[in-house]
Task: structure prediction
Amino acid sequence: MTSRGTPSRFLQSVLQNGIGRYVCQLKRVSIIFSKNAQSSLGVREFIEEGVVDYAKKNPATVVYVSPQSCRIPKIVAEYLNGNVREEIVTSKTSPQISELLTKLTNQSGLDIIRIRKPFHTDNPSIQGQWHPFTNRPPSIGPIRPQKQDAE
Amino acid sequence: MVFLTLSCLIRSRGPDRYWKVQEVLKHARHFRGRKNRCYSLAVKAVRRAFVYATTARRLKKRYMRTLWITRIAAASREHGMKYPALMHNLTKTSVQLNRRVISDLAITEPRTFLSLAKLAQARQQEGFHAALGDGKEPSGVFSRIVLLQ
Result:
């Protein structure tokens, strides 16, 4: 896992989301589960109790519930920038699944890779970035190294 | 007729050699030469790369700190002070900025850094007067020591 060998990105938000209004970046949630398998027990409980409340609380997200005959229940989350995230929810309880869904809702769709710096500014310098003439008095003659007068 | 010898020579090996090899090669794709293609060379190179990455995590902190110190020293020399004097006097005035922040200020906010340098200079002069002077208060200051009347 070298830093050059693995992808990395800078901290950013999708189109400055949140500065004006906040748009939920989660486009679609598909819950794939089985009607009779043991591993989808928690998912079935969640669909009985929590799914409708979740869908009402997040009107911008479309929730698809698709019972299929599958061995492993999954939650597939698609984001507005096209990224698709699949979470496997075998043998998870209903509150765990709702926690997972809130986590997916709060994520933007950006890749989950190493973030180079935990901060980002578009305007890093307010007083003007330093350049070699910042602290020099204006001079007419040729540019020479400054004499350091010990104060 | 039964072919006994040929069928003994054919063995069915493991099914996922390809993926095990790709797991190693994916970390070697940006290397130079045959070690980005050939598994036996790549294994050694990838192990080396991981060892370097591990040790460098400890060393990066040292390098960054020396870089910050170099930058602060250069910036303070522009204002006529030296790095040890600046940092010591800043801690004496209880300015608890770390070296990273001070070096960023020196780069992006030169006037703020100038004010920090002047603060450190003033504290330095006060220290000199306290150590070398008469024990009298500086002229123009009403009282630094509250005298119980």
Q: What stands out?
A: Chain A touches chain B at residues 1-5, 124-130, 134-135, 146, 148-151 (CB under 8 Å). Chain A has a mean pLDDT of 92.
